[in-house]
Design goal:
Helices cover 42% and strands 17% of the residues. The chain is an alpha/beta fold. It folds into three domains: 219 residues, Aminohydrolase, N-terminal nucleophile (Ntn) domain (Glutamine Phosphoribosylpyrophosphate, subunit 1, domain 1), CATH 3.60.20.10; 299 residues, Rossmann fold (3-Layer(aba) Sandwich); 68 residues, no CATH class.
Length: 613
């Protein structure tokens, strides 16, 4: 896992811009703390920061292959889990390898099969490849969008990087945020290709982007397929288990210490249980880590989203699977540290406003990094198997919008409430969400003869797998890579995704509960308490002192003369929330304060030019 950056300029000599290339690459130092390298030619510059996971001594980048017609150079981030099989195949075709790294396998795969090599890769990756034989840059992103990649077209080429900050380090990238950029920040529909910065966009998952003298072109090499599912329930459960077992084995390969995230929920427990045997075959014991808050288990108060604390279930899994476990217990006072908030905003590049969900995850990953370099996660299972409460909540499920926006409970907030009325009117977020929903639904392919229920649930599943999950994968990648930790996502294996997506909803919910297929597939590997546990989301602190600390920091923002926050935020709204007793904050209170504080630090860190015209 690494960070990449680069620049193509067909009308410039980039050998004169080494300092700028170095600055772009340096922004990725957290993603790649182990090594740094740049490769600069007249019209192209590639930068790489390395987190050494496979073949630490051999996988140095940028990596170049010399051919009779010119150099082919690669900068790559991520993991190709089937690299051993591909290397064996390529050796049979006459290729020779100097290293044991998956990077060299990807490079040789391109030399053999051209850009069609991407069809053979199983993994999470983003890479840039310069082919001097054609003066062409390829930018490639994995099928599910686990690894991020951004681009910024220029007058004579393109800037690119694993994160926006790499691109913004180049003076040719303008730091402008306009109304179109703000729509998605507030709307949270995960519009394809969106970036907060004007002129910048994501390379979409499953896409090859080609940059040459003729311009920039995009080719989709993978999209979520719609197929008839012909297996019966028993065969489907067996196939899910087979695929999970195979991907757990593939993703447990590492030349550095590996562990697993364990929340005591079905998803992370399944990953832990299926990975542990492979680690034991190597003569080791799988390490697991969880996050909790000081005193939370003893003072836990159930609500609509969380019926039980995590800790008892974590203990059951640890005893059952026999892992080496550590609880990372956080004091809520740690979570309100302004420097921690700045670190999180810097990691994510956006003022997203999720507060202690993000900050506690950052601290968890930082603690894990002291012991391991790679961790496995249960992310993606809820979107794939139908785990979220709104999959099963009629009002949210039937609403003509994104279900995660339609779901209403005590924690739901109006994301526009804190905005200055003028900004709220200009943005017209309801219309934006409606347009995005119509566009998203239009992209869903259905089978002939599907019932109304199956059509509806296929649509909802598609929205989660092509929209919501990408936002969550980006969060996990940014927060983990900010501390040099690689997070692998077994449930995002594209073979598993294609298979489960096409299983009918009646099969995914055959026992009347969430994630029926997954529960049945791993029932024999887990304690009954975990198999029967109701879905519980990532924990947040329930300490009332946390909200009070947020109010105190927001009061400081109010006192700051000329704060740019108030270009967007309604000062009266913030004044009212700061004056409210912490325990009486309305539903939009705590998260609204989080968003204001994130904006405050984001303005300071990035110095954006906000254009509301």
């Amino acid at each position: 896992m690494c960070g990449i950056a680069g620049w193509v300029a067909f009308n410039d000599d980039l050998t004169a811009h080494q300092k700028t290339v170095d600055a772009m690459t340096a922004t990725m130092s957290d993603r790649g703390p182990d090594a740094s390298g740049t490769w600069v030619r007249t019209h192209v510059a590639l930068g790489h920061r390395r987190l050494a996971v496979i073949d630490p001594p051999g996988g140095i980048q940028p990596m170049t292959a010399t051919t009779p017609r010119g150099e082919v150079t690669l900068v790559y981030t991520g993991e190709t889990y089937n690299f051993a099989e591909l290397r064996h195949r390529l050796r049979g075709l006459g290729h020779h390898f100097r290293t044991e790294s998956d990077t060299e396998v990807v490079l040789n795969a391109y030399l053999e099969w051209g850009e069609q090599a991407v069809d053979r890769l199983n993994g999470m990756y983003a890479f840039a490849l310069w082919d001097a034989r054609k003066d062409t840059l390829l930018l490639v992103r994995d099928r599910m969008g686990v690894k991020p990649l951004y681009l910024y077209p220029t007058a004579d080429g393109v800037l690119f990087g694993s994160e926006p900050k790499a691109i913004l380090a180049n003076p040719r990238a303008q730091r402008v945020v306009d109304l179109d950029c703000l729509h998605e920040l507030i709307g949270f529909t995960k519009a394809p290709g969106w970036s907060l910065w004007k002129g910048m966009s994501e390379v979409e998952p499953g896409t090859v982007t080609t940059v040459d003298r003729q311009g920039i072109r995009h080719r989709t090499y993978w999209s979520l397929p719609t197929r008839e599912h012909t297996d019966d329930r028993e065969s489907t459960v067996e196939r899910v288990r087979e695929l999970l077992g195979d991907t757990a084995q593939r993703q447990s390969v590492s030349d550095v210490p590996l562990c697993a995230l364990l929340s005591g929920g079905l998803d992370s427990s399944a990953v832990t249980a299926l990975t542990a045997p492979h680690v034991r075959e190597l003569g080791e014991q799988l390490r697991t880590f969880s996050v909790d808050f000081l005193g939370q288990e003893s003072s836990f108060a159930p609500d609509e989203m969380r019926e039980t604390p995590d800790t008892p279930f974590i203990r059951d899994v640890v005893a059952h699977v026999r892992t080496e476990h550590r609880d990372v217990v956080l004091d809520p006072s740690e979570l309100v540290d302004p420097e921690l908030r700045r670190a999180v905003v810097r990691a994510r590049d956006i003022p997203v406003g999720l507060g202690d969900i993000d900050s506690s995850m950052y601290l968890l990953f930082r603690a894990i990094r002291e012991h391991s370099t790679v961790t496995l996660s249960g992310e993606f299972a809820d979107e794939l198997f139908g785990g979220y409460i709104w999959f099963h909540h009629p009002a949210a499920r039937d609403a003509p919008t994104f279900p995660w926006l339609a779901f209403q409970n005590a924690h739901t907030t109006d994301r526009t409430a804190l905005l200055h009325p003028r900004v709220r009117e200009r943005l017209d977020i309801p219309s934006y969400i409606a347009d995005q929903y119509a566009e998203a639904v239009a992209g869903v392919e259905h089978l002939d003869g599907e019932s109304e229920t199956e059509r509806k649930m296929r649509t909802i599943s598609h929205l989660h797998l092509t929209r919501l999950v990408r936002a969550l994968l980006d969060r996990k990648d940014r927060l983990s890579m900010a501390v040099g930790l690689e997070v692998r996502v077994p449930f995002a294996d594209h073979r598993l995704v294609e298979y489960v997506y096409n299983a009918p909803w009646s099969m995914k919910s055959f026992d009347g509960r969430e994630k029926s297929l997954l529960r049945e597939a791993v029932r024999d590997a887990l304690p009954a308490s975990v198999v029967d546990r109701t879905k519980s989301p990532y924990p947040t602190t329930q300490d009332p002192r946390y909200a009070k600390a947020l109010q105190e920091q927001a009061r400081e923002v109010l006192a700051e003369r000329g704060s740019p926050v108030f270009e967007l935020v309604d000062r009266d709204w913030l004044t009212e929330r700061v004056a409210t007793e912490p325990e009486s904050l309305p539903s939009d209170g705590r998260l609204g304060l989080e968003r204001v504080l994130d904006l405050h630090h984001w303005f300071d860190l990035y110095q954006p030019d906000v254009d509301l015209s």
